[in-house]
């Protein structure tokens, strides 16, 4: 009986999703009982019960001798409209949708990317002919399992500038940092295992861990890095293998780990046999001399994940992993099995840009944009009565709250009507169902005139 009850609800829910997504139009007949029994491998009684549940939900109507037909219900909201997204703002998918929209009228203070005009100096338009001319024979093949060798060689020098000593055999190119995280999870973590994350932390990572079936344990993020007292207690109780941590330009708080805390964290990793996955997406936006775990540890207990999305273009989807040579080889094999390869064309494009004389000028200008926007954003937000989690000198993100605003989701809902999006704090929490007064703001967008006008009105607080 329990199996029947579960089965008919699952089938009804599946059919309801298809109806609401437009797979079946108003007035259209659903497949017959016999067709669904055959195609979806359900028993007759289960299908009948599912149809009856759809009738009870007001989605379909029975017609004697003819079958079940879709009723003229209210049209579902577009999956990409703000109204639909805000109804599910506690879901990390909302912010993913917001970042993937292309609305030139919107003021996207929830965005995780630098403003497009900051990245224009990379001049992608100038390099594609060079890529095609320089590698015509290789543009029609999968490429090396590690990724394009000249770019990996450039990354040896780039990481050296951050104090991380590597060789090309320790570097694996990936389809963005998100594929890098996927590969590490597949390689290191069996379903059901505990994985540690910053809390608040990177919402994309939380989604990946949930899909992977891992148990997520959040370590509170403080202004100078993870709360090490809480961390040690979790290490004692759960004995996790992996901790995903962002040392500098932390998403969403903008905080940087202190040198003292970084050393203490590495000592705990050694004591409890913990691997640290250091995510560094803002490396090109921050000073090179800032403390990084991988530079202190030299990839002994650290795995370094980087990307060019924040400094060149998210559309290129070029990221990388730096780790021990043995692990890099095994991750390369895993990448071949799961994804065949990363894009050599995109990797050649990045390599070409890095060799251009204008690249250093672009990175210098990018850092200047970030520093100026950080200072200006702080002044504007302070004038509006904001409280700050920390005080970074340069950051793409500000983590703020306002007196009288207990749940930043309310502000998100209010501002949507004005085509302004902010990222409510609950999205970045391991427990997204909670209430948070905090919100993440993009410093490059806070300085926008329309956002400044909103701050002067001080809605809801």
TrEMBL record:
UniProt xrefs under SUPFAM superfamilies: PLP-dependent transferases (SSF53383), Winged helix' DNA-binding domain (SSF46785)
UniProt keyword terms in alphabetical order: Aminotransferase, DNA-binding, Pyridoxal phosphate, Transcription, Transcription regulation, Transferase
Record family assignment: In the C-terminal section; belongs to the class-I pyridoxal-phosphate-dependent aminotransferase family.
Protein name as catalogued: PLP-dependent aminotransferase family protein
Single annotated GO MF: transaminase activity
Domain HTH gntR-type residues, every copy: 5-73
InterPro entries: Aminotransferase_I/II_large, HTH_trans_reg/aminotransferase, PyrdxlP-dep_Trfase, PyrdxlP-dep_Trfase_major, Tscrpt_reg_HTH_GntR, WH-like_DNA-bd_sf, WH_DNA-bd_sf
Pfam family, one: GntR
PROSITE patterns in the cross-refs: HTH_GNTR
Biological classification of the source: Bacteria, Pseudomonadati, Pseudomonadota, Betaproteobacteria, Burkholderiales
């Amino acid at each position: 009986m329990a199996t029947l009850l579960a089965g008919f609800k699952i089938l009804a829910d599946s059919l309801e999703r298809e109806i609401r997504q437009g797979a079946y139009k108003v007035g259209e007949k659903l497949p017959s009982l016999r067709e669904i029994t055959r195609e979806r491998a359900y028993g007759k009684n289960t299908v009948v019960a599912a149809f009856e549940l759809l009738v009870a939900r007001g989605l379909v109507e029975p017609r004697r001798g003819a079958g079940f037909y879709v009723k003229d219900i209210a049209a579902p909201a577009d999956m990409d409209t703000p109204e639909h997204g805000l109804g599910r703002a506690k879901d990390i998918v909302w912010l993913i949708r917001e970042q993937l929209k292309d609305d030139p009228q919107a003021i996207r203070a929830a965005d995780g990317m630098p403003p497009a005009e900051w990245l224009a100096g990379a001049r992608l338009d100038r390099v594609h002919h060079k890529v095609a001319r320089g590698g015509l024979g290789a543009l029609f093949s999968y490429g090396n399992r590690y990724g394009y060798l000249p770019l990996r060689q450039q990354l040896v020098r780039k990481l050296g500038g951050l104090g991380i000593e590597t060789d090309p055999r320790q570097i694996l190119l990936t389809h963005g940092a998100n594929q890098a995280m996927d590969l590490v999870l597949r390689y290191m973590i069996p379903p059901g295992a505990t994985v540690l994350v910053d809390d608040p932390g990177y919402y994309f990572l939380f989604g990946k861990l949930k899909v992977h079936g891992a148990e997520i344990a959040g370590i509170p993020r403080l202004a100078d890095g993870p709360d090490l007292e809480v961390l040690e207690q979790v290490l004692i109780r759960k004995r996790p293998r992996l901790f995903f941590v962002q040392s500098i330009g932390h998403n969403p708080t903008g905080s940087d780990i202190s040198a003292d805390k970084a050393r203490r964290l590495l000592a705990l990793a050694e004591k409890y046999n913990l691997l640290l996955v250091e995510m560094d997406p803002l490396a090109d936006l921050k000073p090179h001399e800032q403390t990084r775990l991988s530079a202190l540890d030299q990839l002994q207990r650290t795995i370094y994940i980087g990307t060019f999305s924040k400094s060149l273009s998210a559309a290129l989807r070029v990221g990388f992993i730096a780790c021990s040579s043995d692990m890099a080889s095994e991750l390369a094999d895993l990448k071949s099995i799961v994804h065949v390869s990363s894009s050599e064309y995109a990797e050649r494009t990045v390599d070409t840009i890095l060799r251009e004389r204008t690249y250093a000028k672009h990175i210098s200008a990018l850092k200047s944009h970030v520093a100026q926007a950080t200072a200006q954003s702080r002044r504007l937000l302070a004038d509006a009565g904001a409280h700050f989690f920390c005080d970074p000198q340069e950051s793409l993100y500000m983590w703020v709250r306002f007196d009288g605003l207990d749940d930043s989701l309310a502000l998100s809902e209010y501002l949507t009507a004005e085509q302004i999006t902010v990222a409510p704090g609950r999205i970045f929490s391991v427990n997204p169902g909670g209430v948070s007064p905090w919100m993440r703001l993009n410093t490059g967008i806070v300085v926008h005139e329309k956002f400044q006008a909103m701050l002067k009105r001080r809605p809801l607080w």
